[in-house]
Structure formats: C-alpha cells, structure tokens
Amino acid sequence: MSRLVTVAVSVIALLAAQAPALARRLGPLPPQANVPTGPTQCVFGAWQRWEGGAVRVMAAPDDKSALLGTLPAPDQTRDYPVYLDVIGTAPGWLHIAHASDAQNEQAGHPHREVYAGEGWVSSDTVKIGVQSARGYLLPDAASPRIVDLGDRWLTEVYRIGEIRGCSGDWVLLTYHDDSDVRDMMTFGTAWFRGICAIYETTCDRKSVDTPE
To answer: Whole-model pTM?
Structure first.
C-alpha cells in the first residue's frame, strides 16, 4: 500500500472516530424552513453585494430570457453600494426594481449606468441587514422559533446568505457562521423580520422582537 493511500485511510478512520463526539456536541439538527417552490411577492429595500462582478438583470427568472440591463460591478473606491427594491422572488431569483447609484453621485463619484427598471437577478447578488435575533419556521411569530440569538441580531452573529422567499414584512434567509462562536448549528434557513436596507449603518426602529 502506498504512503498516500495509507495517509488517506488514516484520515478517514480519524474522522469516523470523531463523528459520534461531534454529533453529541452539535445535538439534533434544528428544523429548517421550507423554501417556496413558486413565486412570492413583497416590497423591501436591499443593496447589491460588494462581492462579484456586474449583475445581469433578466426579463424573467431564467438565464435564457432576454437581458434587460446590468447593475455595475462593485467598486470598492465608492462609498455606497447600488441600492434597490426587491418586489418578489422565484426559486434562485429576485424580482427587483428602482436600482440606483444616486448616493455615490451625491458623494461626488462619477456617474455609472445602472438599469433602474424591473427585472430578475440571481438571488446571491443582493444583500440585506437583519435587526432581529429570532428566526421562525413560517412567516408567523406564532410558528416554531428555530433560531434565537438572545440580544444579538442575526447580522451580528451570522453571515447572511441568500434571500429565498418573502411574505409581507418577512424574508426567508439562509445564514451561516464561519467563526464557530456559538455551540449550535453553523447554517440554517429561517424566516426573519426586522429587515434593514441600509448598508453603512443600522436602521432606527423599534425591535420586532419586543412584544407589543
């Protein structure tokens, strides 16, 4: 048996031996919210992610549909991202409108062409902030709570992944934690309220986690 094969077998054996202890530490997997299989409608503000290149805006939630325009590639020398409204979702896609780079122009940056009409973009190209510690199985605060971060917002503890659905003032999000700061699952999918559409600061509003 070659040295490489021997090392590989040893690593697999070590991982297998550690699996029961890891499972005990993590405990049972928490429930995950189901992702809608069809379109959803809503209205909330968001911004184009800083990571990645220019974003293609399509006529329909389909890569083969007509290209309507683009959101420009993120520019780290600018003060603000491109802001936009999300007005609906479809699996893997977000329906957007009113994209604007006006804040950068007001700050003295050169004009950029930004497609401002309605269209569809990939769901991994848009981001929001979440000023809530609680995620639910359904877009209803009476449904099972599947994540509770105490007095810390989701934005503070986890990296927010993709927007997967929306309903009224609720947004279905994926999230994950790179730092292992909590002894809990490091990823999940849940419904959240308390959406903040401002990249550079927090939103001044009453907490949605505070009982009326």
So the answer is: 0.80
